[in-house]
Amino acid sequence: MNKRLLIANRSEIAIRIIRSAHKLGLTAVVLQSDKEPDALYLQYADEIIEARDANNEKPIFLDAERIVQLALENHIDLIHPGYGFLSENPDFAALCEKNGLNFVGPSPELIRNMGIKTIAKKMAIEAGLPLVPGSDGAIANAQVAQEIAKKIGYPVLLKASAGGGGRGMRIVEKPETMERNFKSAFDEATAAFGNGDLFIEKYLENPKHLEFQILGDKFGNVIHLGERECSLQRKHQKLMEEAPSASISSKVRNKMGKMAVKFAKSIGYFSAGTIEYILDEDGTFYFMEMNTRIQVEHPVTEMVTGIDLLDWQIKIALGEKLTLKQSNIKTTGWAIECRVNTEDPQNRFSPQTGFIEKIRFPQGNHVRIETGVQNGSVVTPYFDSMIAKIIVRGNNRQDAIDKTLEALKDFSLVGLKTTVPFCRTVLQDPEFISARYTTRWVTQFFKPVMLEHPDDELIGALAATIIYATEYLQIVSDAPASRNENLNVWVLNKRINK
Amino acid sequence: MGTSYVYRRDASRLFIAMRENGKRFKIYLPKETLPVIDNVEQDINFIEQSDYQYLFEWKGKRYNCELVSRDQNKSTVKVNGVEYKFSLESLFSYVRHGMIDKDGKQLNENNITSPMPGKIVDIFLAEGDLVNEGEPILSLEAMKMQNEITATCNGVIGKIHVVAGQSVMKDDLLIEVTSIDV
């Protein structure tokens, strides 16, 4: 009998996991949340479990106990957590393990260690990875923070040990503001993670974010699949990613990759994982953290290596040996991913919720679409705003940029605003084209007016005029004109002449 | 010859779309030909229209437009995912609000006066008509020769002070023209 894989996630990643499950002959089971009972991913699954979470405080995807209970009731063999939600929650992984469910990911212990940044950093130091200068562990109070900051130099960054997503994070420019920032970061971290521990490190002014994809099996074999550059971020949320990165030489790439593998091996890592580095302007790189899940941006790596990361992640969980050798890994071409978030880049990226009346994606051999929505889908406030990803492969970086831009022109969505115009702007920006862009690009360079295009503006003026004129001409005309008659002459005329 | 002119008499089809930043578009929607934007006829195809949605084709590219909001003469239109706000005026309200030719001097310069003594043979346009720069407005007979008097700007015909057959003296005001060239 087929093994049964439960996907404890939703949207595009659920569909992505289903695809791999089917390839590997697994029965794909999903959870149906009352918060989005008509979601697209449900249509792809072999079986749907009704979670009945309407009256619950949290959606099913965050309810570890309930997921495990439903999994047991439905004779599930494996649980894939996807990304976000419980994917990096060691208690959930432990609960799965305890109940004889195969958690698709590393061990609970590895998740826990990598999740606590002070522990992860200690392990990284032991493996010989360079770290951004800072405190060895959690700091007791603002006074200690000031002492360390004096040593490493301002500006410094206060970071929550248990943090992520920018919460519990503060940049401190001078000693006078340390106390205030320390307190607010501590409070924020306590509220968000139930753990107010903070550490301190040197703040890099113009850093780049690079990360190495790792695959390791349960027999100690570990390889890396090259890097991704994810420097294009807003408030620590990635918006666009590319693979490989134009910011490092092949010598540095080898060094970073080898270190990543060495680190993963030293901690006995298995499953798919990501080693994140921060790259300073002078080319110095430092270990930042390790992510123990499959990442949103994994497709860019797949596009340039030709290796299916999801397949391997599941196969490794099933106890298969990693047959890929480091020497098998060759990257060809260049891939760019654009996240389609229902956020308004003209208005501080404020989230948009509502109906997707009509959505159209680009097509083509070099274009890959991962979407969790279709025409008529609803974007609710319950979940995050990413509805799709557009991934494009080119022969080289410039070719990838050109093709991505071309592909984005074929994207349209009626009903909500998205980050696609933002991605178009980035792809035409000299800082991005020259690969000089850093994680500060949005705050340093981006202005909403950059989203505008004179041709779009002219067409907009025409459309607005047609709408206005339709009514105006009805008023001024003596004849009892039918709706749009006055203007449809032009429309009809153009149709006939086509 | 007349066919090369973009404006076809009907001034009620000329509109001004103005953005918040002050940028203006002068848009003329003739009945049977292409739209004229800032005096230039644009080869814009109107592909499809459904509720508040418009699909255009121009320069080989498609443009998706969506009417986002509408409040009297103000419209927000989303084009390729980006919103643009416009306030709209008909030519007449635009002129009435004094937004064109605030300067009386410029107004006078565009009026048609008689270049020589003679007789009006014919007037080709009527009050309220749009006229193109260089387009004949009337024919004046002087010294057995018929002269066509042409407009010095793109504009709209105001008051016509003469009729066909009337004799005029040099520098007589014949026709008032309000420029639409901003």
SSE topology sketch:
The complex is a heterodimer of chains A (498) and B (182).
Chain A (H helix, E strand, L loop, with lengths): L3 E4 L3 H13 L3 E6 L14 E4 L13 H10 L4 E3 L9 H9 L3 E2 L4 H8 L1 H10 L15 H11 L3 E5 L9 E3 L5 H16 L4 E5 L5 E9 L5 E13 L2 E7 L6 H17 L4 E9 L5 E7 L6 H8 L3 H9 L16 E8 L1 E2 L5 E2 L2 E2 L2 E3 L6 E5 L6 E2 L6 E9 L2 H13 L2 E3 L5 H8 L2 H4 L7 H5 L8 H23 L8 H13 L1
Parallel strand pairs in A: 1-2, 1-4, 2-3, 4-5
Antiparallel strand pairs in A: 6-7, 6-8, 9-10, 9-12, 10-11, 11-14, 12-13, 14-21, 15-16, 17-20, 18-22, 19-21
Helix pairs in contact in A: 3-4, 6-7, 11-12
Chain B lengths: L8 E2 L3 E6 L4 E5 L7 E2 L2 E2 L3 E6 L2 E6 L2 E11 L2 E6 L2 E9 H6 L7 H7 L1 E2 L4 E6 L5 E3 L4 E7 L2 E6 L4 E6 L6 E2 L4 E7 L3
Antiparallel strand pairs in B: 1-13, 2-3, 2-10, 3-4, 4-5, 6-7, 7-8, 8-9, 9-10, 11-18, 12-14, 12-17, 13-16, 14-15, 16-18
